[in-house]
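A further point concerns the way the authors explain their paired sequence and structure data. Each protein is reduced to its one-letter sequence and a matching series of backbone shape codes. An entry of this sort, consisting of the sequence and the corresponding backbone structure tokens, reads as follows:
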Amino acid sequence: MHVAIAGNIGSGKTTFAKKLGKQFNWDVQLESVDDNPYLKDFYEDMKRWSFHLQVYFLNSRFNQVAKIKESATGTIQDRTIYEDCYIFAANLYKSGYIDERDYNNYLELFKSMIKHVTAPDLLIYLKADIPKLVANIQKRGRDYEELIRIEYLKNLNEHYEEWIGNYDLGKLLVIDVNELDFVAKVEDYAFMFEKVDFEVNGLFK
């Protein structure tokens, strides 16, 4: 089984993925953040480093998908390859941070890769508004994330709403986390887990 968690920066994907991985005894595939050589530079100069960053993420995610395909155990993935293209790269292009030549190059690379990609059995989207995202980003205190602009998060959220609204590649579960704190409150996590457990069990029917 391949389950993936989608959501904007600060929505709680990584933490939720780790918790579900532990509870279901799934392999956890996290996003390459701490060892990403472009991330800090990207937030300091988005126009210069956007293309490099997106190609790095795309390659990293494709390698994850290949690994998941070969795995005999269940896997939960922190963010999907679709988000790399349809959310982040598209947003950077529309915002003028990636020029048309580089964007077309990126899209051709994505098209080549996507032929070899199988969609997750279940996609969980953690829906969060800007105040929730900002609060979570500040709470985890990554230095380079202090440079994230509100407008950038807002644009990403708009891309997410459009993509999720048209998602048809497999089973989809949307969880609104705006009023939830599944880290501090056991009952909030239990509420979310119950929703996921119901969908996961449904995959076997």
